[in-house]
Model the fold of this input.
Amino acid sequence: MSALLEIDNLQTVFSTGRGMLRAVDGVSIALNAGEVTGVVGESGCGKTMLALSILRLIPPNGRIQTGRIVFEGTDLLSLTEAEMRQKRGSDIGMIFQEPMTSLNPVLRVGEQIAEVVMLHRGLPRKQAQDESVRMLAEVGLPDPSRRAADYPHQLSGGMRQRVMIAIAMSCHPKLLLADEPTTALDVTVQAQILDLMAQLQKKNDMAVMLITHDLGVVARMAHRVAVMYAGRIVEMAAAADLFENPLHPYTKGLIESRPGACGKATSGNFKLKTIPGTVPSLYALPEGCRFSDRCDYASETCRHAEPSLEEVRTNHCVACVLHQKKIAG
Done:
């Protein structure tokens, strides 16, 4: 099966007063139609910038230095800005992290959906307005005709997130990039949003890149998972395989640090496991493996040679000398 989206050796860099910062550093990943691929990692690891690179929405002081982003056989980096603008919204949709800052505060939510429909589907305004009401109903917003006339500040957080999903889905994209779609929502609303996304993904047979730091969300939604650390992918596997048999020490640390994975201490209290140390500064990355300073298994080889991402089991890739040595042996 050919991939809908193929990213090859992508490097996105930023020029700052402190020097060059590599936010995405040599990332390669493929997304298939009908699959949900989770991208997980700590804040600042490059997850959001990976999605913005796909859309070519990088802030002005950044640029894509190397790599290819091939969508349906076309390298997005070769398109003009006008051609890329047509891809955004029509073929590739995105749910941004914070709906209150992503929605226009002075436009009614129905108008914001209608604008996207007119731009990408060419519908006249009246039909576009009718379509906006239909989309609000499809994402489960109660009384969609009335809500279409509301401004963003009149809606709850869960309602605003549904509006963002309606905008992203209004042109039936083939690829959906969802950046922390349940952040700042309470648990009940989170579950509703995830159920809605799962229904729409299956109904439209979309490829979805689900960006999150919440492993519970990934376990519930994703078919495959890529784990990012300090700008690079350090492990990639089918979701079930990754959670049952994590290979990279960082992945193991993430899984064990979940509250549900904690063992019970003799005092009767749950003891939360943590990963020692801190994420390295992207301005001063270590010479070898970027996780070596926090890893219990690090050797001298790890401190001087950065491992590449290699397949060590069927469809299970890891960037760790420990496992690559085992396979070589």
In short: The two ends are 32 Å apart (CA to CA).
